[in-house]
Structure formats: C-alpha cells, structure tokens
Amino acid sequence: MAKLRHSRFDCAPGCAVEAAVGLIDGKWKSIILYQLLKGTLRFGEIHRLIPNVTPRMLTNQLRELEADGLITRTVFAQVPPRVDYALSPLGRSMEPVLMALKAWGDAHIGLYGKPHEVAGA
C-alpha cells in the first residue's frame, strides 16, 4: 500500500517537521539517502554498504523513497537486468539535513552507542 502524501497532515504547529520526518521515517531510509549522496548505486552496492538490512526491507524502503520522489530508479533493458538508484533533485535537497544528522551523531555517539559494562557486575 502506498503511503498517503502530505495531505494527511493537519498543518498544526510542527506540521512541516512532521512532513519532513515522515519522508525519512523508518530505520533505513536516512541511511539509504546518505549512501546515495555519494552517487548512483545499484541494489547490491546499497546492500553491501548497509549489510544489516534484509533484501526485502531494502526493496520496501527503496520503493517508498521512490514513491515519495526522493530517489529515482532507472531500469536498463539488458541481460542481466540492471537497475540504478540515485537521488532525485528533491532527495539531493535533503543533503544539508542528512549531513547535520551525521554531524550530530558523530558528536554524540558516545551517549547512545553500545551499552557500557558496569564495573563489578
């Protein structure tokens, strides 16, 4: 089922934030977008860069990103079939947001990284 477009938001205060976050919600979408900042990638390349995502989940997330207009999917008629994924202009416009998330994460990863063992436990 395709996601509803932005008409689902009531435009109360915070509506723009809700809309923006709604586009990149999901565990893998922002990571996929971040990887595509480097350029066009094929499915297998994306999967190698994000090894913890299952192929099914990656497919679903790519479909949603395409439906929302953040990425483009180009199919080449050749054998074997080739499909390229790239950021659309709308997706490229999210670069400052993604880089800000990365910078924040780099600065605060120690607070939210793997749990530390308690001494004497």
Describe the structure.
This protein has six helices and three strands. It is mainly alpha-helical and 121 residues long. It has a domain at 28-111: Orthogonal Bundle (Arc Repressor Mutant, subunit A), CATH 1.10.10. The chain is globular. It starts with 14 loop residues before the first helix and ends in a 9-residue tail after the last helix.
Summarize the structure.
With 121 residues, the chain is mainly α. The protein has helices at 15-24, 29-36, 43-49, 55-67, 89-92, 95-112, and strands at residues 41-42, 71-76, 82-87.
CATH topology of the domain at 28-111: Arc Repressor Mutant, subunit A
Mean pLDDT: 86
- Helix amount: 40-55%
Shape: globular
Quickly name the level 1 CATH class of the domain at 28-111.
Answer: Mainly Alpha
Distance between the termini: 48 Å
The CATH architecture of the domain at 28-111 can be given as Orthogonal Bundle
Structural class: mainly alpha
Q: Would you report the number of β strands?
A: 3
Strand order of the largest sheet: 1-3-2
* Rg of Cα set: 17 Å
Beta-strand level of the residues, as a percent range? 5-15%
Q: Give the oligomer, counting copies of the same chain as homo and different chains as hetero.
A: single chain
SS element count, helices: 6
CATH superfamily annotation of the domain at 28-111: Winged helix-like DNA-binding domain superfamily/Winged helix DNA-binding domain
